[in-house]
Design brief:
The chain is an alpha/beta fold and about 325 residues long. The protein folds into two domains: about 120 residues, Trna Endonuclease, Chain: A, domain 1; about 150 residues, ph1033 like domains (ph1033 like fold, Roll). Helices cover about 25% and strands about 25% of the residues. The radius of gyration is 19 Å and the shape is globular.
Amino acid sequence: MRRITEKEMEDMIAEKPSELIGEEGLKLLARQYAIGKYRFDLLFEDRHGGKLIVELQRGALDREHMFKVLDYCDEYRDRNPSEFVEPLIISNIIPHERKRRLSRRGVAYKEIPEEIFLEYVKRVPSINVLKEKVPSHPYERASNAFEISGLPKPDNQVKLSGSEESASSINCYMIMTDTDARMDRRECDIWFETGYAFCGEYAKDYGKRRKNFAGLEPGDIMLLHENHGRLKKTGCKKIVGVGRVLEKWDEKDHKEGSMLFYTIEPGEDFFEYRIKVDWFADLRTNPVDPRLEGIHISPLTFRQISDSQAVDRILRRANA
């Protein structure tokens, strides 16, 4: 059986980042980008101007690659303090324990089986992507990282599709349940029981995840996406709930002893953030595959969905 090479993986992701990574609007800036004593595989810019460092490994992700991407990201931040940058690891196989550790460190990851890349080789036998240089001008990230033109802020009362208002007039976000946050029970159950949406980060990354909730307004819609973890057995990554944001975020840092969602080791310097959400559509027993509605699966924890028609279709399903 033919095996994929890491070079071919890099070529294909450079050629089709939106399709393989699952994030729309990514622009390739450089390949084999050298910074200090390091060199990483791919550098992208997202549609908000933020940078995405991508490290690849063929086969199963090992410990060395898992920690190398943190070095790359730290070095890039030290040299570009005004830029927003996130790391992403892509491998054919990512063991459960590695996923758990990456999640704890706030590192996004994506598992793409070798068979997917081999299919691309068959479809596009000669992929050639030109290496581009990073622009020399400085970059300042927009203060509102989630602002996307064409989606005005909603009124406080949000109506589902089929009534006076639909997804074309609301802001909609997809948020992942962080399925490796706990080992004792299904994470999304806690979201429904408590009436909150959650995210968190370690003290060393303070401020990175806080931005997730900072731009939310009452009435915004959230698609609750159950991801990774125990779903790996079925390959199922689907929307298990739809909710409406009920408040402006209180900006509180919840630490050990006051957390509702995350379980951490004693003494870990970790912050939990939460915001009140009315989870009005419970899809846990009949989840919706966002790909069937034209929404790419993304490794990012939190992102705005700009395809209002796709969101509208999901809201119709939730209201059916």
